[in-house]
Amino acid sequence: DQGIKGVVIKLGKKFAEISLIDKNTIKAGAATLDRKISNFAMENEISSLEFLSCIPGSIGGAVIMNSGCYGYDISHVLSSIDVIDILECKEKEIFKEEIDFYYRGTSLPNHFIITSVNLKKRRTNQSKFLLLVD
Asked: Considering only CA atoms, which of 76, 92, 74, 94 is closest in space to residue 84?
């Protein structure tokens, strides 16, 4: 093990909080576990986030990797992210439209630290039900 050439940042408990912005939008700290967000969405009757229940890890990493399964990925439900730009030493809000998403990746630069995400219920014209059983 040669260690890590750089800085390791661990987001604490305050970065794992979840709240409702409105009846269709969740704000979650970047350290919040994907499954916890899926459960919170279910408890608050927000659909389209069920796929997160089977993705290991936190929502910040899920955004960076454009994580997904069962035909859904983060790009379908992301509204915006809050980041710290370590080059400019300032906080920024980045909207979904400013991010290029591709299979298991995004165009987000390495000098952004995601602190929170806003997830919104996916609008769809068709009925699609996804049942996940433990």
From this structure: 92
Structure tokens at 27: 């704000």
- Is the distance from CB of 117 to CB of 63 less than 8 angstroms? yes
Calculate the CA 69 to chain-centre distance: 14
> Cα angle at 53 between 22 and 97, to 5 degrees?
50
Task: Give the CB-side neighbour count of residue 23, counting CA atoms within 13 A.
Answer: 1
Kindly tell me the burial class for residue 104, based on how many C-beta atoms sit within 10 Å of its own C-beta (0-12, 13-18, 19 or more). exposed
Q: What is the pLDDT along the chain (134 residues), one digit of tens a residue?
A: 788 888 888 899 999 999 999 999 999 999 999 999 999 999 999 989 999 999 999 999 999 999 999 888 999 999 999 999 999 999 999 999 999 999 999 999 999 999 999 999 875 544 445 555 55
Please give the Cα distance from 43 to 40 (Å, whole number): 5
Q: How far apart are CA 4 and CA 117, in angstroms?
A: 27
- Size of the chain, expressed as the number of residues it contains: 134
